[in-house]
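User: Predict structure, ligand adenosine-5'-triphosphate.
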Amino acid sequence: MAISAVNAIGVLGGTFDPIHNGHLRLAWEAHTRLGLRETRLIPCHVPPHRATPTSSAHHRLAMTTLACAGVPGFTVDDWEIRRDAPSYSVETLTHLRQQLGEDTRIIFLMGMDAFCQFTTWHQWQRILELAHLWIAHRPGANEPAPGSEEARQLQRRRVDHTGLLEAPAGSICVYDSTALDISATHLRAQMALGISPRFLLPDSVRGYIEQHELY
Ligand code: ATP
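Assistant: Predicted complex:
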């Protein structure tokens, strides 16, 4: 079977405040390397693990939609934003699993910084029953410390990227991705000083930020 025929989708959740090329490159590398039929970007409404975002859900959704426009296979899912409750990843993945059926490979995408906290997440074991993890390198984030639960999970479940397509869920791939040292926090701080984010996020997103004077 050709890899592009595989019944697999990627899922990238985030605050996207604003969405930037670090997010997009992470999603694109997984999308193309695995031949995913779709990659969904899901802006969160109320982040459970972090301070309130500085732009409204409406603006974050609009920026994510602009960033994905014209990217083959990328879609934006407003499910978390429409919910009137904290959006735990396990709930989103449960919803996706119900929507997509038991056979679809669900690949949950994240940076190494996020993975290093993974076993503090709500019902993290259940997440691994619902999805695989694809972990991208991120400057400043090393692999989990030896002896940590994350290191144990990695040792137990690690596969190369093709291994993710062999079952619907339960494996972890650390992909040798292009490390881009871009963070939304840093971009917001730069924009607050009047420094342009050009070339670090899509021009369409930059135009939207300027038009709405977001940061
Ligand atoms: P902030 O700086 O506000 O924390 P962020 O840039 O980390 O924001 P999030 O929306 O919190 O962006 O990140 C969503 C997901 O994207 C996380 O899994 C995070 O690890 C990943 N990610 C964000 N930026 C990068 C990057 N430059 N390289 C790899 N992964 C990234």
